[in-house]
Write a structure and sequence with these properties.
The chain has 431 residues and is an all-alpha fold. The chain contains 23 helices and no strands. The longest helix has 19 residues.
Length: 431
């Protein structure tokens, strides 16, 4: 059997489509070409395929293997679990993965790693993020024992993604950096191979995360590498977000001209691909950049952003526009309008994290007005949200601010309580 025939036979035995085998790193057409013996993957690409098909790389390179080995019971359960996930049956998938682990030989590190990784995927879909982190850490250890560098890099990247969803940006960036090191040491994808997309995705996520951490030099470095790789590969990944982050980097580094340039690129790109969600955000960015020139310069961008958000039923987009308009009103000294717009932004937001950001801005406005009761109300709402999300960093900051607010309001007992909670959380983080 040829390499392509072996891949096709194994893929079908495991109930996988070409898209399943391709994943995010490759295209379906690339898989089709390989199976038709019209293309031959690089060794780095083959390692990824071998891992997904539960076979050593040597199997595909050995022409003496005429028949694909029968998948083990654990491998069949793994395939069944993936099918259940595609059907949206994540709880059933988790049960299947538990059975697969029970059937796995303790030394079958590759299969065990795959099961843990799929288990993590199902847990993410169920919004059980701490459990997903645990599953991915177990997967990383299994792949380490299997000496599968490519799989370890992928898992570290996934760990970064999950920590990002939990707003644990520092942890996310640390895992991304580990993945990058593994890519550079073990995979080193080239521009003419499909794995380059994995590197592009990683560099982009690293740049976006570094920007959120206000590590502007690092963000600029990662995003410029991503831009260069995207140009070489003629592949765009989260291009609108990349341009928006480059705009933010320019703004924070004091280069307003560069910031506007990248924001305009983001708008142009999103217009061309009809990405209305990122388009609204990019238009808001442009409006905020132009606001230094006055309301007249900023309003056309805010108005268009609101028109797009309303036309597409984008509740979060409408919330973003109202929050930006509130900020503009605050800058102009119209406190009453600012409060109304912030409240409207809170009410229209469907994203808990976004809502917490708006509440924090509203609380800061009340603090500036010395309206301690109103400020405390917004901050206490954020405490409830951060507790639910187990976001200790945000809790520490919010409790600390609350302590100051209650102290200013003459509520010493509440201030002492918040200060104690903040210090306890800080100590627990340091241990």
């Amino acid at each position: 059997m040829t390499l392509g025939e072996k891949m096709r036979a194994l893929r079908r035995q495991m109930g996988m489509t070409q898209a399943d085998l391709a994943g995010e790193e490759f295209t379906k057409s690339f898989i089709s070409q390989i199976e038709k013996n019209q293309a031959r993957p690089s060794l780095k690409s083959l390692r990824i395929f071998a891992q997904r098909l539960n076979r050593p790389v040597s199997y595909f390179l050995d022409d003496g293997a005429d028949v694909a080995p029968t998948p083990s019971e654990a491998q069949r359960m793994l395939s069944t679990g993936e099918l259940l996930e595609r059907q949206g049956k994540f709880e059933e998938a988790l049960q299947t993965y538990e059975k697969a682990l029970a059937e796995c030989a303790p030394t079958d590190y590759a299969t065990r790693g795959q099961v843990y990784r799929r288990r993590a995927h199902a847990l993410v879909e169920l919004d059980q993020l701490p459990a997903a982190v645990q599953a991915l850490e177990l997967a990383a250890e299994e792949f380490r024992l299997a000496r599968d560098t490519a799989a370890r890099a992928e898992v570290d990247q996934l760990l970064g993604d999950v920590h990002n969803r939990m707003r644990r940006r520092e942890e996310a960036l640390q895992y991304y950096e580990k993945a990058l090191l593994l890519y550079e040491e073990g995979l080193a994808p080239h521009k003419d191979t499909e794995p380059s997309f994995a590197m592009l995705r990683l560099l982009t996520e690293m740049g976006l995360t570094a920007a959120q951490l206000r590590k502007w030099d690092a963000a600029h470095r990662y995003l410029k590498r991503a831009e260069s790789l995207a140009t070489e590969c003629r592949t765009l990944y989260r291009w609108g977000d990349l341009c928006r982050s480059m705009s933010r980097v320019g703004k924070e580094r004091g280069n307003r001209r560069e910031a506007i340039h990248w924001a305009e690129r983001a708008v142009a790109y999103c217009d061309s691909v009809l990405d209305h969600i990122v388009l609204v955000r990019a238009l808001v960015d442009l409006g905020e950049l132009r606001s230094s020139e006055g309301r007249k310069a900023a309003m056309p961008f805010f108005e268009r952003a609101m028109d797009v958000a309303q036309a597409k039923g984008d509740a979060d987009g409408k919330s973003r526009v109202r929050a930006a308009l509130a900020k503009l009103a605050e800058q102009e000294g119209d406190v009453k309008q600012a409060v109304e717009l912030y409240q409207s932004a809170v009410n229209s937001s469907e994203d808990g994290w976004r809502t917490s950001d708006i509440r924090r801005s509203l609380a800061n406005l009340f603090i500036a007005r010395k309206d301690w009761e109103a400020a405390a109300k917004q901050l206490e709402s954020n405490v409830a949200f951060y507790e639910k999300q187990r976001c200790n960093k945000s809790l520490i900051e919010t409790y600390s601010t609350l302590a100051e607010v209650y102290e200013a309001a003459g509520k010493s007992e509440d201030a002492a309580r918040c200060l104690r909670l903040s210090m306890d959380l800080y100590r627990s983080q340091s241990e």
